[in-house]
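Hi Y.,

Following your request, here is the sequence exactly as I used it, all 89 residues.
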Amino acid sequence: MDNPGKLFGQIAAEAGVTSSKAKIAVYLLGLARDGRTLEYAATSLRRSEETIKEYCREFHIDMADYKPFAKRKNRDGLEPRYVLDTGHA
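Below is the corresponding structure, written out as C-alpha cells. Let me know if you'd prefer a different format.
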C-alpha cells in the first residue's frame, strides 16, 4: 500500500519539533497556500497575531498579508529552520 500522506508524528520527527508545533505549522502552511490572511489564521487558531508571526518566521511561511521572506528568499537563499514535508505537493 502506497500512502503519500504522513502522520503528524512523522512530520514532527523529520522537522525536529513537537507534534503540536508540526500541526500548527502544517495548518498555517495550508492557510497560506489558500491565500488566507494573518488575522484569519490568528482567529482560526485562537492565538495572537504575534504568535502566528513567530510560527511564520520559524517555518518560513508567507501569509497573504505577512510575507517576511518573500523578498529575502531569492536574494539571500534562505533555508527554513524546519522543513515541512507533508507528503503532499
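The two ends are 19 Å apart (CA to CA).

Thanks again,
Q.
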